[in-house]
Design goal:
Phosphorylase Kinase, domain 1; Transferase(Phosphotransferase), domain 1; 6-stranded antiparallel β-sheet; 21 strands; disordered N terminus; disordered C terminus
C-alpha cells in the first residue's frame, strides 16, 4: 500500500527543478520509471527514481549509482542514452534517460517467433551494444527480452539494451559475495548457474539464448522450477533449431557451448558472424548460393556439435512450405530431352568401363571414386553422391515407429511425417541419410542410414526421453 502511495503522490511533482512527472511507465520493488517533461529543453524524457523505502538499503543505492555511472559512459545507438543523474529534493537518486516509443522484446515474443533475418538483425544490434560495454570493462549479467526494447525510428527499427543495474566488471566484485547468483534462469550461462566468477562471455551465452528464442519462439531451456532450468543449462543438450539456415544454426551452437573457452570469445566477432548469417539466410530464401562460400561457417556444417545443422522449410507468404536443398550439395543436374545423346553417351561410358576393368582389375573389384560391381557377367557403374536425380532411383519405403506417437520424422533435415508413418529413402545414391526424430519436451534422437535395397529395414532408433529427466547427454 505504501508503495502505491509513493507512486501516486509523485505524479505532478517536479524533480531537479526541471522534470515534471506526468505518468508511470514502469516500476519494480526498488524504483519507479516515469514519463516526464523537461521544461528546460522542452522534450519528453524517462526518469528512474528510487523509492523512499529503499533509501536505507545501502547496497541497492550503490548498485543504482553504479548503473548511472556505467550507462553514461556508453554511446552506442543500441544502448539506452542517459542524459543526466542526480538526487531529488527529498534525497532520492534519479536518472534521466531518453524516452523510448515502442515495446519490449518480451512483449513482441508473446506474439510468437520472429522471422530469421529480422531476429538476426536484432541480435546483431544487441551484440554491437554489448561489444562497446565489454570494451569498457562492463558486462551486463542480466540480459533478457525484458531488458531489450524495440523502437521504430523513421523507416528503421532500432534495438535498445536497457538496465545495466546489476552490470558487472573488473571493479564490481566488491558488490557481490562469492557464489551469489544474479540473472534470469532462462538466459543464464552455465557458469552463472554454478555461481562461478563471471566475465563478458556470460553475455554471449545469454544473447545466444535470446536469439534462439526469437527464431524458435521458445527459449532453449525451460522447466517448472528455476533450479531445474539452471540444471538444464549446465547439463542438457540444446534442442535442434528448426527455423533457421545452417549458418545460423552453427552460430547458435558456438554461442551456447557449455565451456566458455569454446564459445564465441567476443561480441564484436559475434556481430560479424551474425552479419554473415543474414547474408546466408537471405540467399537461402531467394534460392541463391551463399554470398561467402569460403566462410568458416560453411565448413563442417554437418558436425556442428550440440545443434546439428538442418535444411529448412521455407514458407512463402500465403503459400505452402517448400523444402530447400541442403546448402552444401549442388542441385540435381537437369535432365536432357535429347535421348539419342544419352544412349550414345551411355554406350561409350560402358565400353570404357568394361575395357578398363579387363585391363586393370578383376571383375569383382571396386573402382576408385565411382564404384563398379559385377552384375551377372556385366559391369554397372554406381553413381557418385549428388550426381543423380533421387527421383529416378528406387525407394526404400520403411515404417518408422517411436516409443512416443506424434514424433516428427526428419530426413536430411526436412520433416516428412509423424510417427507411426512410412518414409521414402533413395536406394543407390551413395549417400548416408540423416534420420531424426524430434518432439517438444523430448530429447532428439538421430541415426545415419544408407539403404542397400528396397527391403532393408531402417536402423533402430533410441527411445525418446523427456528433457526433464536428469540425462547425461555428453
Amino acid at each position: 500500500m505504501s508503495m502505491e502511495m509513493v507512486v501516486v503522490d509523485d505524479i505532478g511533482k517536479t524533480i531537479g527543478g526541471r522534470y515534471e512527472l506526468t505518468r508511470v511507465i514502469g516500476e519494480g520493488g526498488m524504483g519507479v520509471v516515469y514519463e516526464a517533461f523537461d521544461t528546460q529543453v522542452q522534450r519528453e524524457v524517462a526518469i528512474k527514481v528510487v523509492r523512499n523505502e529503499c533509501l536505507s538499503d545501502r547496497k541497492f543505492l550503490t548498485r543504482f549509482r553504479r548503473e548511472m555511472e556505467v550507462t553514461t559512459r556508453l554511446r552506442h545507438p543500441s544502448t539506452i542514452r542517459v542524459f543526466e543523474h542526480g538526487e531529488a529534493e527529498d534525497g532520492r537518486p534519479y536518472m534521466v534517460m531518453e524516452l523510448l516509443r515502442g515495446k519490449s522484446l518480451a512483449e513482441r515474443l508473446e506474439k510468437g517467433r520472429i522471422p530469421e533475418i529480422e531476429a538476426l538483425q536484432y541480435a546483431r544490434q544487441i551484440a554491437e551494444s554489448l561489444s562497446e560495454a565489454h570494451e569498457n570493462g562492463i558486462f551486463h549479467r542480466d540480459l533478457k527480452p525484458d531488458n531489450i526494447f524495440i523502437e521504430s525510428v523513421g523507416v528503421s527499427t532500432v534495438i535498445k539494451v536497457l538496465d545495466f543495474g546489476i552490470a558487472g566488471g573488473l571493479d564490481a566484485t566488491r558488490l557481490t559475495r562469492a557464489g551469489e547468483v544474479f540473472g534470469t534462469p532462462q538466459y543464464m550461462s552455465p557458469e552463472q548457474c554454478n555461481g562461478q566468477a563471471l566475465d563478458h562471455r556470460t553475455d554471449i551465452y545469454s544473447l545466444g539464448c535470446i536469439l534462439y528464442e526469437m527464431i524458435e519462439g521458445r527459449p532453449p531451456f525451460a522447466a517448472e522450477s528455476p533450479m531445474a532450468t539452471m540444471l538444464k543449462h549446465v547439463k542438457a543438450k540444446v534442442p535442434t533449431p528448426r527455423y533457421c539456415c545452417r549458418e545460423t544454426a552453427k552460430v547458435l551452437t558456438m554461442s551456447l557451448r557449455k565451456d566458455r573457452t569454446k564459445r564465441i570469445q567476443d561480441c564484436g566477432r559475434f556481430a560479424q558472424l551474425l552479419g554473415e548469417c543474414i547474408g546466408a539466410a537471405r540467399a537461402s530464401m531467394e534460392g541463391r548460393p551463399p554470398p561467402n562460400p569460403e566462410s568458416p561457417l560453411r565448413r563442417s556444417l554437418t558436425t556442428t556439435g550440440p545443434i546439428a545443422a538442418i535444411a529448412l522449410d521455407r514458407t512463402p507468404a500465403g503459400g505452402i512450405p517448400v523444402p530447400t536443398l541442403p546448402l552444401e550439395q549442388p542441385a540435381p543436374p537437369p535432365a536432357t530431352s535429347n535421348t539419342s545423346k544419352l544412349v550414345i553417351g551411355g554406350l561409350i561410358a560402358g565400353f570404357v568401363i568394361i575395357v578398363g576393368a579387363m585391363l586393370f582389375g578383376s571383375p569383382s573389384s571396386e573402382a576408385e571414386g565411382g564404384k563398379s560391381r559385377d552384375e551377372g557377367g556385366g559391369f554397372v557403374t554406381l553413381p557418385e553422391a549428388g550426381e543423380v536425380d533421387p527421383d529416378t532411383l528406387p525407394k526404400n519405403r520403411a515404417r518408422i515407429d517411436s516409443n512416443v506417437n506424434g514424433a516428427a520424422v526428419l530426413i536430411d533435415g526436412v520433416q516428412v511425417c509423424e510417427t507411426p508413418c512410412n518414409v521414402e529413402v533413395p536406394v543407390g545414391d551413395g549417400k548416408e541419410h540423416e534420420l531424426r526424430l524430434t518432439k517438444d519436451g523430448y530429447v532428439d534422437v538421430m541415426t545415419k542410414w544408407q539403404p542397400s535395397s528396397v527391403t532393408e529395414p531402417p536402423p533402430a532408433l533410441p527411445d525418446l526421453k523427456k528433457t526433464e529427466q536428469d540425462i547425461d547427454l555428453r
